[in-house]
Protein backbone atom coordinates (compact mmCIF):
# COMPACT_ATOMS: atom_id res chain seq x y z
CA UNK A 1 0.00 0.00 0.00
CA UNK A 2 0.91 3.65 -0.32
CA UNK A 3 0.89 4.84 3.28
CA UNK A 4 1.10 8.46 4.36
CA UNK A 5 2.44 9.32 7.80
CA UNK A 6 0.78 12.23 9.64
CA UNK A 7 2.69 13.59 12.63
CA UNK A 8 3.74 16.64 14.61
CA UNK A 9 7.52 16.82 14.69
CA UNK A 10 9.02 17.95 17.97
CA UNK A 11 11.92 19.75 16.31
CA UNK A 12 9.57 21.93 14.23
CA UNK A 13 7.89 23.28 17.35
CA UNK A 14 11.19 23.68 19.23
CA UNK A 15 12.48 25.78 16.34
CA UNK A 16 9.32 27.90 16.59
CA UNK A 17 10.12 28.73 20.22
CA UNK A 18 8.00 26.26 22.22
CA UNK A 19 9.61 24.91 25.39
CA UNK A 20 10.45 21.28 26.09
CA UNK A 21 7.38 20.41 28.16
CA UNK A 22 5.01 22.02 25.66
CA UNK A 23 6.12 19.67 22.89
CA UNK A 24 6.94 16.49 24.78
CA UNK A 25 3.94 14.64 23.30
CA UNK A 26 5.12 15.21 19.72
CA UNK A 27 7.22 12.76 17.73
CA UNK A 28 10.98 12.89 17.50
CA UNK A 29 12.58 12.41 14.12
CA UNK A 30 13.84 9.02 15.40
CA UNK A 31 10.23 7.88 15.88
CA UNK A 32 9.17 8.90 12.37
CA UNK A 33 12.23 7.24 10.87
CA UNK A 34 11.49 4.04 12.80
CA UNK A 35 7.82 3.97 11.72
CA UNK A 36 8.82 4.61 8.12
CA UNK A 37 11.54 1.95 8.17
CA UNK A 38 9.11 -0.61 9.58
CA UNK A 39 6.51 0.17 6.92
CA UNK A 40 9.10 -0.06 4.15
CA UNK A 41 10.36 -3.38 5.48
CA UNK A 42 6.79 -4.69 5.28
CA UNK A 43 6.70 -3.85 1.58
CA UNK A 44 4.70 -0.63 1.68
CA UNK A 45 5.52 2.68 0.03
CA UNK A 46 5.62 5.63 2.42
CA UNK A 47 5.20 9.38 2.27
CA UNK A 48 5.75 11.79 5.13
CA UNK A 49 2.82 14.19 5.37
CA UNK A 50 3.45 16.12 8.59
CA UNK A 51 0.91 17.97 10.72
CA UNK A 52 -2.87 18.22 10.33
CA UNK A 53 -2.45 21.67 8.78
CA UNK A 54 -0.19 20.24 6.10
CA UNK A 55 -2.57 17.32 5.70
CA UNK A 56 -5.43 19.73 5.04
CA UNK A 57 -3.43 21.43 2.28
CA UNK A 58 -2.44 18.13 0.72
CA UNK A 59 -6.02 16.83 0.72
CA UNK A 60 -7.29 20.10 -0.76
CA UNK A 61 -4.68 19.75 -3.50
CA UNK A 62 -5.98 16.30 -4.37
CA UNK A 63 -3.38 14.07 -2.69
CA UNK A 64 -4.64 10.67 -1.51
CA UNK A 65 -3.19 7.55 0.12
CA UNK A 66 -4.32 3.96 0.52
CA UNK A 67 -3.95 4.45 4.29
CA UNK A 68 -2.63 7.13 6.60
CA UNK A 69 -0.68 6.20 9.72
CA UNK A 70 -1.96 8.93 12.01
CA UNK A 71 0.29 10.19 14.79
CA UNK A 72 -0.70 13.88 14.60
CA UNK A 73 -1.39 15.19 18.12
CA UNK A 74 -2.22 18.83 17.33
CA UNK A 75 -1.38 21.81 19.53
CA UNK A 76 -4.54 23.64 20.64
CA UNK A 77 -7.92 22.78 22.12
CA UNK A 78 -9.73 19.67 23.32
CA UNK A 79 -10.25 18.55 19.72
CA UNK A 80 -6.62 18.79 18.66
CA UNK A 81 -6.08 15.04 18.36
CA UNK A 82 -9.29 14.73 16.33
CA UNK A 83 -8.28 17.23 13.63
CA UNK A 84 -6.31 14.87 11.37
CA UNK A 85 -8.84 12.00 11.46
CA UNK A 86 -11.72 14.45 10.92
CA UNK A 87 -10.01 15.68 7.75
CA UNK A 88 -9.36 12.13 6.61
CA UNK A 89 -12.97 11.13 7.27
CA UNK A 90 -14.15 14.15 5.29
CA UNK A 91 -12.15 13.06 2.25
CA UNK A 92 -12.83 9.35 2.68
CA UNK A 93 -9.18 8.42 3.28
CA UNK A 94 -8.61 5.35 5.51
CA UNK A 95 -6.33 5.78 8.52
CA UNK A 96 -4.87 3.91 11.48
CA UNK A 97 -5.91 4.50 15.09
CA UNK A 98 -9.04 5.94 16.65
CA UNK A 99 -11.72 8.19 15.19
CA UNK A 100 -12.40 11.85 16.09
CA UNK A 101 -15.04 11.06 18.72
CA UNK A 102 -12.85 8.67 20.68
CA UNK A 103 -9.80 10.92 20.46
CA UNK A 104 -11.75 13.89 21.79
CA UNK A 105 -13.36 11.93 24.62
CA UNK A 106 -10.14 10.33 25.78
CA UNK A 107 -8.09 13.52 25.58
CA UNK A 108 -10.52 15.14 28.03
CA UNK A 109 -9.81 12.90 31.02
CA UNK A 110 -12.95 13.79 32.97
CA UNK A 111 -15.19 12.97 30.01
CA UNK A 112 -13.45 9.60 29.57
CA UNK A 113 -13.99 8.88 33.27
CA UNK A 114 -17.68 9.76 32.97
CA UNK A 115 -18.04 7.32 30.06
CA UNK A 116 -16.32 4.38 31.72
CA UNK A 117 -18.03 5.00 35.07
CA UNK A 118 -21.43 4.99 33.35
CA UNK A 119 -20.44 1.60 31.89
CA UNK A 120 -19.77 0.22 35.37
CA UNK A 121 -15.98 0.43 35.24
CA UNK A 122 -14.37 1.65 38.49
CA UNK A 123 -12.51 4.95 38.34
CA UNK A 124 -11.38 7.21 41.21
CA UNK A 125 -13.96 9.77 42.36
CA UNK A 126 -13.15 13.11 40.77
CA UNK A 127 -14.02 16.75 40.25
CA UNK A 128 -13.04 19.40 37.70
CA UNK A 129 -11.58 22.79 38.59
CA UNK A 130 -12.07 25.40 35.88
CA UNK A 131 -11.42 28.49 38.05
CA UNK A 132 -9.67 28.93 41.41
CA UNK A 133 -13.07 29.45 43.02
CA UNK A 134 -14.11 25.90 42.11
CA UNK A 135 -11.68 24.53 44.70
CA UNK A 136 -13.99 25.61 47.53
CA UNK A 137 -16.71 23.23 46.32
CA UNK A 138 -14.57 20.08 46.28
CA UNK A 139 -15.63 17.55 48.92
CA UNK A 140 -13.40 14.58 48.15
CA UNK A 141 -11.31 12.74 50.77
CA UNK A 142 -7.59 13.54 50.93
CA UNK A 143 -5.02 12.82 49.67
CA UNK A 144 -6.00 13.95 46.18
CA UNK A 145 -4.19 13.93 42.87
CA UNK A 146 -4.28 16.85 40.42
CA UNK A 147 -3.27 17.10 36.77
CA UNK A 148 -4.19 19.03 33.62
CA UNK A 149 -7.40 17.65 32.17
CA UNK A 150 -6.19 17.25 28.59
CA UNK A 151 -2.48 16.44 28.48
CA UNK A 152 -0.40 13.29 28.01
CA UNK A 153 3.14 12.09 28.65
CA UNK A 154 2.70 13.11 32.32
CA UNK A 155 2.72 16.82 31.42
CA UNK A 156 1.94 18.88 34.49
CA UNK A 157 2.47 15.95 36.88
CA UNK A 158 5.10 16.30 39.61
CA UNK A 159 5.61 15.56 43.30
CA UNK A 160 3.26 18.49 43.97
CA UNK A 161 0.44 16.67 42.18
CA UNK A 162 -0.34 14.69 45.33
CA UNK A 163 -2.06 17.12 47.71
CA UNK A 164 -2.96 16.55 51.35
CA UNK A 165 -5.11 19.50 52.41
CA UNK A 166 -7.22 22.36 51.00
CA UNK A 167 -4.31 24.80 50.94
CA UNK A 168 -2.12 22.49 48.87
CA UNK A 169 -5.09 21.84 46.59
CA UNK A 170 -5.72 25.55 46.07
CA UNK A 171 -2.08 26.35 45.33
CA UNK A 172 -1.67 23.35 43.07
CA UNK A 173 -4.77 24.12 41.02
CA UNK A 174 -3.80 27.77 40.66
CA UNK A 175 -0.36 26.70 39.42
CA UNK A 176 -1.75 24.26 36.86
CA UNK A 177 -4.45 26.66 35.65
CA UNK A 178 -1.85 29.35 35.07
CA UNK A 179 0.70 27.06 33.42
CA UNK A 180 -1.48 24.92 31.17
CA UNK A 181 -4.47 27.21 30.47
CA UNK A 182 -7.02 24.42 30.87
CA UNK A 183 -9.14 22.88 33.65
CA UNK A 184 -7.60 20.68 36.32
CA UNK A 185 -8.73 17.13 37.03
CA UNK A 186 -8.89 16.43 40.76
CA UNK A 187 -9.28 12.79 41.73
CA UNK A 188 -8.92 10.65 44.83
CA UNK A 189 -5.35 9.41 45.11
CA UNK A 190 -4.93 5.65 44.80
CA UNK A 191 -1.93 4.24 46.74
CA UNK A 192 -1.79 0.82 45.09
CA UNK A 193 0.00 -0.78 42.16
CA UNK A 194 0.05 0.94 38.75
CA UNK A 195 -0.22 -0.87 35.42
CA UNK A 196 -0.30 0.00 31.75
CA UNK A 197 -2.10 -2.45 29.49
CA UNK A 198 -1.17 -2.66 25.81
CA UNK A 199 -4.06 -3.50 23.48
CA UNK A 200 -4.21 -4.39 19.79
CA UNK A 201 -7.29 -4.49 17.58
CA UNK A 202 -10.77 -3.01 17.52
CA UNK A 203 -14.10 -3.98 19.06
CA UNK A 204 -14.63 -7.74 19.26
CA UNK A 205 -11.21 -8.23 17.68
CA UNK A 206 -9.42 -6.31 20.43
CA UNK A 207 -6.93 -8.31 22.47
CA UNK A 208 -4.42 -7.60 25.18
CA UNK A 209 -0.80 -7.51 24.05
CA UNK A 210 0.48 -7.53 27.61
CA UNK A 211 0.38 -5.80 30.97
CA UNK A 212 3.30 -3.99 32.54
CA UNK A 213 3.62 -2.82 36.13
CA UNK A 214 5.23 0.59 36.62
CA UNK A 215 7.28 1.01 39.80
CA UNK A 216 8.84 4.38 40.59
CA UNK A 217 12.06 4.04 42.54
CA UNK A 218 12.88 6.09 45.61
CA UNK A 219 14.06 9.51 44.49
CA UNK A 220 13.05 13.16 44.21
CA UNK A 221 9.47 12.29 43.13
CA UNK A 222 8.58 8.91 44.69
CA UNK A 223 5.25 7.09 44.09
CA UNK A 224 4.29 9.25 41.10
CA UNK A 225 4.86 8.55 37.40
CA UNK A 226 5.63 12.23 36.89
CA UNK A 227 6.93 14.16 33.91
CA UNK A 228 10.48 14.16 35.34
CA UNK A 229 10.34 10.47 36.27
CA UNK A 230 9.15 9.58 32.78
CA UNK A 231 11.83 11.84 31.26
CA UNK A 232 14.50 10.06 33.36
CA UNK A 233 12.90 6.65 32.92
CA UNK A 234 16.07 4.53 32.95
CA UNK A 235 17.26 5.94 36.28
CA UNK A 236 13.97 6.35 38.13
CA UNK A 237 11.51 3.70 36.93
CA UNK A 238 11.39 -0.10 36.98
CA UNK A 239 8.91 -2.07 34.87
CA UNK A 240 7.98 -5.73 34.75
CA UNK A 241 5.48 -7.98 33.05
CA UNK A 242 2.64 -9.10 35.29
CA UNK A 243 0.70 -12.37 35.31
CA UNK A 244 -0.83 -12.48 38.79
CA UNK A 245 -4.44 -12.03 39.91
CA UNK A 246 -4.17 -8.24 40.16
CA UNK A 247 -2.79 -8.13 36.64
CA UNK A 248 -5.61 -10.31 35.36
CA UNK A 249 -8.22 -7.97 36.86
CA UNK A 250 -6.44 -4.91 35.45
CA UNK A 251 -6.37 -6.60 32.06
CA UNK A 252 -10.11 -7.34 32.16
CA UNK A 253 -10.86 -3.77 33.19
CA UNK A 254 -8.59 -2.27 30.52
CA UNK A 255 -10.09 -4.32 27.71
CA UNK A 256 -13.61 -3.34 28.78
CA UNK A 257 -12.64 0.35 28.87
CA UNK A 258 -10.98 0.07 25.45
CA UNK A 259 -14.15 -1.30 23.90
CA UNK A 260 -16.55 1.09 25.64
CA UNK A 261 -14.46 4.11 24.59
CA UNK A 262 -14.32 2.92 20.98
CA UNK A 263 -10.52 2.77 20.77
CA UNK A 264 -9.07 1.19 17.63
CA UNK A 265 -6.02 -0.67 16.31
CA UNK A 266 -3.50 -0.13 19.13
CA UNK A 267 -2.91 1.83 22.32
CA UNK A 268 -2.77 1.62 26.09
CA UNK A 269 -5.06 1.83 29.09
CA UNK A 270 -3.58 3.00 32.41
CA UNK A 271 -4.83 1.30 35.59
CA UNK A 272 -4.11 1.90 39.27
CA UNK A 273 -5.23 0.02 42.37
CA UNK A 274 -6.70 1.42 45.57
CA UNK A 275 -5.62 0.49 49.12
CA UNK A 276 -7.66 -2.75 48.92
CA UNK A 277 -6.09 -3.79 45.62
CA UNK A 278 -9.17 -3.01 43.50
CA UNK A 279 -8.23 -1.92 39.97
CA UNK A 280 -9.47 1.46 38.68
CA UNK A 281 -9.36 3.08 35.25
CA UNK A 282 -7.10 6.14 35.11
CA UNK A 283 -6.96 7.11 31.43
CA UNK A 284 -6.79 5.85 27.86
CA UNK A 285 -4.00 6.39 25.36
CA UNK A 286 -5.43 5.72 21.88
CA UNK A 287 -2.58 7.58 20.10
CA UNK A 288 0.33 5.77 21.75
CA UNK A 289 3.88 6.99 21.67
CA UNK A 290 5.90 4.87 19.25
CA UNK A 291 9.54 5.68 19.90
CA UNK A 292 11.19 2.30 19.31
CA UNK A 293 13.10 2.32 22.59
CA UNK A 294 11.48 4.78 25.00
CA UNK A 295 7.71 4.55 24.44
CA UNK A 296 5.62 2.23 26.62
CA UNK A 297 3.77 0.31 23.90
CA UNK A 298 6.91 -0.69 21.92
CA UNK A 299 8.61 -1.49 25.24
CA UNK A 300 5.73 -3.73 26.27
CA UNK A 301 5.72 -5.42 22.85
CA UNK A 302 9.46 -6.02 23.13
CA UNK A 303 9.04 -7.54 26.59
CA UNK A 304 6.43 -9.89 25.11
CA UNK A 305 8.76 -10.95 22.29
CA UNK A 306 7.22 -8.85 19.51
CA UNK A 307 9.56 -6.79 17.35
CA UNK A 308 8.92 -3.16 16.50
CA UNK A 309 8.27 -4.17 12.90
CA UNK A 310 5.81 -6.78 14.15
CA UNK A 311 3.98 -4.18 16.21
CA UNK A 312 3.66 -1.82 13.24
CA UNK A 313 2.49 -4.75 11.13
CA UNK A 314 -0.29 -5.54 13.60
CA UNK A 315 -1.41 -1.90 13.63
CA UNK A 316 -1.58 -1.72 9.84
CA UNK A 317 -3.31 -5.11 9.63
CA UNK A 318 -5.96 -4.01 12.13
CA UNK A 319 -6.55 -0.68 10.37
CA UNK A 320 -6.65 -2.08 6.84
CA UNK A 321 -8.92 -4.98 7.83
CA UNK A 322 -11.28 -2.60 9.60
CA UNK A 323 -11.48 -0.22 6.66
CA UNK A 324 -11.92 -3.08 4.18
CA UNK A 325 -14.81 -4.40 6.25
CA UNK A 326 -16.40 -0.96 6.58
CA UNK A 327 -16.18 -0.30 2.86
CA UNK A 328 -17.10 -3.82 1.78
CA UNK A 329 -13.85 -4.12 -0.13
CA UNK A 330 -11.29 -6.88 -0.11
CA UNK A 331 -8.52 -6.50 2.47
CA UNK A 332 -5.67 -4.69 0.61
CA UNK A 333 -3.13 -6.82 2.47
Topology:
Elements: E1 2-7, H1 10-15, H2 29-41, E2 45-50, H3 52-60, E3 67-71, H4 83-90, E4 95-96, H5 100-107, H6 109-118, E5 126-129, E6 144-148, E7 162-163, H7 166-180, E8 184-188, E9 194-200, E10 207-216, H8 227-231, H9 233-236, E11 237-241, H10 245-261, E12 266-273, E13 279-285, H11 296-303, H12 308-327
Parallel strand pairs: 1-2, 1-3, 3-4
Antiparallel strand pairs: 5-8, 6-7, 6-8, 9-10, 9-12, 10-11, 12-13
Helix pairs in contact: 2-12, 3-4
What report would you give on this structure?
Helices cover 37% and strands 22% of the residues. The strands form three sheets. The chain has a five-stranded antiparallel sheet. The chain has a four-stranded parallel sheet with strand order 2-1-3-4, sandwiched between helices. The protein is built from twelve helices and 13 strands. The protein folds into three domains: 2-97, Rossmann fold (3-Layer(aba) Sandwich); 125-188, 2-Layer Sandwich (Dna Ligase, domain 1), CATH 3.30.1490; 194-286, ATP-grasp fold, B domain (D-amino Acid Aminotransferase, Chain A, domain 1). The chain is an alpha+beta fold and 333 residues long. It catalyses: 2 D-alanine + ATP = D-alanyl-D-alanine + ADP + phosphate + H(+).
Amino acid sequence: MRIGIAFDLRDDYANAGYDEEDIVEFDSIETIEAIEAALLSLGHKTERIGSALTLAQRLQNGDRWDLVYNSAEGMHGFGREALAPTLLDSYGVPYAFSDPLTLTITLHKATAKHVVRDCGIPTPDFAVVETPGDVERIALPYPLFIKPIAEGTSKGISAASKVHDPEELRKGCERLLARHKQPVLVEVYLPGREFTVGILGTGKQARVLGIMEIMVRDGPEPEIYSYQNKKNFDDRVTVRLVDDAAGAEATRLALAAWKHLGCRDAGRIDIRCDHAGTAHFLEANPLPGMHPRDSDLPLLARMKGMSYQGLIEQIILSASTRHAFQSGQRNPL
